[in-house]
Amino acid sequence: MADSKRDKAAAWIGFILLTTVALIVGRVNHSQLFGTGMFDSFALQADAWREGSTHLAEDFKHLELAIYNDNYYVSFPPFPSVPIYLLKFIIPSGVPSGLLTLIYFLLCYPVAYKIARRTIAAASAAMLSFAALAGGSMLDVAVSGTVFAGAVWYQAQTLSLLLTLCAFYGVGHHRASWRFFGWLSLALAVGCRPFQAVYLPFLIWEATRRQTELPMGKKLVSILPMWIAPAAVAAALCWYNWIRFGSIFEFGHNYLPEFMYLHAQFDLKNIAVNFFRILRPPFIEEISSAIPLAYGFAVYATNPMLTNAACSVMRRKPDAGDILLMLTLSAHFFLLLMHPTFGGWQYGTRYICDLLPGFLALRYRSGKSVGAPECVYLVSLAAFNIAGTIAFHALSGR
């Protein structure tokens, strides 16, 4: 859909409102947007690369570092270090961690809006894009309090979200250059959060669904050239894991001191525990806090696009794409529930923010604009979560 001046105004209003909310919340939470944050492991990894090393020169007790063969490694998938490595040629004094995370977050808005405009009106696209980003746990990831702004976990998650949205936008584009960019974005998203790979089957379906005249085998062959660059990215990630830990699948988490005693980092026994934790409402906490401070809570309220997408699907007859996407989201959801900490200290349920591109796609696929009841629902939960994000930091003292 081509945007008129009125449509562009709606898009800009949503973006300006998102930026304003993020800056206000960051200001109230004393988010440190400038300077290298003390929890920015990716900056340390970029510094190591500049020295020709894959491991850090010393231990940093406050960071989650993998210990392997008496060396200390950043225990997260490495791609978020790449932008920092490149930016350090321009800003040698240090890349501002909190600002970088905020920029990733804000860039998610125009991509989400562009995807939405393929099927729904501009005002609705702006509303849904704003609500997805500012109306849930993702806001705290973008502008967390004090020194946690731009921390290693938040950089990985905001950049992963941006790249996964780019994948959804690019793969479904009519231009080959954008489709190439979409597949590359998915590979880079996996280099931030490995479970983003679960979207591959849906994106293959999205890329081939218009080729109705071809059998599936030929459809897959037609997109193989688009996979050359993503395959190179995957090979680079596997190689980097191999030279550090001797395994193409190991990026360091199994060598964190806190996980070394576990038989498996992801375990089925964690699913029930985490599931009931993320269903508990606010105002129930063992230490008399108004908001649970760890392991997640009220996923239906702190990630409103989950319930919004579910309601959207229930109001229509799902097609093959809807069913495939719902299966994908279910698989992603249960994989995350297998983690022993499910994100630990957090506002709401930040791990579920990894599913936002899928939730948005389910909602956009309906082709229906946002009605008054949905608008009230989204605005109400946005207000709740903006206030909740501020209250969370006040209660936790961080």
What is this structure, in a nutshell?
The protein has 17 helices and 2 strands. A two-stranded antiparallel sheet has the order 1-2.
Strand order of the largest sheet: 1-2
- Strand proportion, as a percent range, falls in under 5%
Biggest sheet architecture: 2 strands, antiparallel
* Element-by-element helix/strand order: HHEEHHHHHHHHHHHHHHH
Number of strands: 2
* Termini separation: 44 Å
Shape: globular
Radius of gyration: 21 Å
Fraction in helix: 55-70%
Kindly state the mean pLDDT as a whole number? 92
Low-confidence stretches: none
Structural class: mainly alpha
Please count the helical segments. 17
How would you describe this protein?
Helix 4 (97-116) packs antiparallel against helix 5 and helix 15 packs antiparallel against helix 16. The chain has 398 residues and is mostly helical. Helix content is 57%, strand content 2%. The protein is globular, with a radius of gyration of 21 Å. The N and C termini lie far apart (44 Å). It contains 17 helices and two strands. The model has no long low-confidence stretch (mean pLDDT 92).
Search tags:
2% strand, globular, 2 strands, 398 residues, two-stranded antiparallel sheet, mainly alpha
Please write out the topology:
Elements: H1 5-28, H2 41-50, E1 65-68, E2 71-74, H3 81-87, H4 97-116, H5 122-134, H6 138-142, H7 152-171, H8 176-190, H9 200-208, H10 216-223, H11 228-245, H12 270-279, H13 299-302, H14 304-314, H15 320-337, H16 356-364, H17 372-396
Antiparallel strand pairs: 1-2
